[in-house]
Amino acid sequence: MKQRYNKVIISIFCLIASSSTYAQLVLNGQDTSYRVITTAVPFLTIAPDARAAGMGDVGAATNADVNATYWNPAKLVFTKADKGISLSYTPWLRRILSGMSVSYLSAYTKLDDKQAIAIALNYFNLGNLSLKDNSGQGAGEFRPREFAIATTYSRKLSEVLSMAATLRYIYSDIYGNLTIGNGVSSQAGNAIAGDLGIYFRTSPPEVSTPVQFAFGAVVSNLGTQINYGFGQKNYLPANLRIGTQVGFTLGFNQINLAVDLNKWLVPTPPVYKTRNGVVERTTDGRPIILHGKDPNRSYLSSVFGSFTDAPGGISEEIHEIMFSAGGEYIFNDMFMFRMGYFYESPSKGGREYLSLGAGAQLKSIGLDLAYLVPFQQNNPLGETIRFSLHLDIGDEFKPTEDKTRTNKNKRNPNTKKQRPPQYKNKHIKRR
Q1: CATH of the domain at 357
Q2: Which keywords belong to this entry (predicted)?
């Protein structure tokens, strides 16, 4: 559906993480009561699948499935099937705008009982835009789009511990051939990023225990900055996610409870010195910082410094931690019911919502649904619904049998049973 350009820009800002230039970003830090961390390509932070979304966006340590590539790729080697594929679809911000959606396709295969590889495609569709000039006349059409392609390698370090790495290519074209007043033109942004994950569980998936604990941690979207051609580079939504899960099994009933903590690994906007609402600058044109740190620093400094650069000190750093909690009830591995809660500090975006989910599994085919219920009225995230369809192929991978050892212990049926040496000669008398 064709939409006005300005309406789409408003919708992008409703994503809570804007794709504006970083120069605009840091000036927002002047409001000490509302200092939101924004980055480029915010679509990478949208929960793509219905199962995790139905549990409040938890995924660092939940049971492994085909969508582990997004949440924690280290879980892939603990999936039950040899192979799997999943397709998820989310109409986005449908309360205020039609035509926007997030699509996610993921697939994996196990190389053996210790290794797995995967590929994933994340596509953000902003719809078709009908552009108009200052006189209101048609100025053509533009179709903004963003996508990311990721490949993953996951490996077991033991029967209960695994690690994984993901390499991701990101493409973002949200401005088209836009030219601003000084003659500077926009361009599509490109970036390379990576993820590192670790996953631990108290026992292998094939071992049934009444209580099962799991722990997971992953750093995501560590990579190059994006340049849209306006002379400013934009940070990717790098983040650290740590989570745990406890599972209870009783007969055909299973209950999983999970908690995740999520922290951005990008600079917090500082507070600048102003006079009459205008930021004061040094003789070389750099803005004067009153509190916080300069966001334009080396990449490693921006990542590790993100734990100590908030102008409000440790209390503001704590407010930057997002909290997710969710529960899942599974009956006979066929029917699933889920509920979750997500919280973000009001000073850092103020997202707070309840999520509901359900799923069904029939042999190798599964369907999951999730529905988001925000606590704030008229929230643009309201009525967000997600659909996921997944297919599991093959049984759980079993280690290759040692044929040499098996054949050694296996008696040839054509071989006659041998008598003990002392009885071979019937003329030898027993003593």
Answers
A1: 2.40.160.40
A2: Signal
For residue 70, give the nearest of 208, 259, 215, 216 by alpha carbon: 216
Report the pLDDT value the prediction gives residue 384, as an integer from 0 to 100.
93
- Tell me whether residue 425 is in a domain: no
Domain that holds residue 303: 2-411
CA Rg value for the chain: 27
Specify burial of residue 36 (Cβ count, 10 A radius: 0-12, 13-18, 19+). Answer: buried
CA–CA separation, 111 vs 47, rounded Å? 27
Neighbours of 59 (CB within 10 A): 28
Predicted structure pTM score? 0.82
Residue 395 in domain? yes
Q: Does the pLDDT value for residue 401 go beyond 50?
A: no
Decide the pairing of beta strands 271-272 and 289-291. antiparallel
Quick: pLDDT tens for 235-292. Answer: 999 999 999 999 999 989 999 999 999 999 999 988 888 888 888 888 888 888 888 8
What residue has token string 């390379």? 192
Structure tokens at 161: 């511990």
- CA–CA gap between residue 261 and residue 324 (Å, rounded): 6
CA-CA distance, 278 to 134, in Å (whole number)?
A: 28
Q: What share of the chain is helix, strand, coil (3-state, %, to 5)?
A: 15, 45, 40
Sign of CA pseudo-dihedral 415, 416, 419, 425: negative
Q: Which residue type is seen at 99? A: G
d(CA 240, CA 150): 18
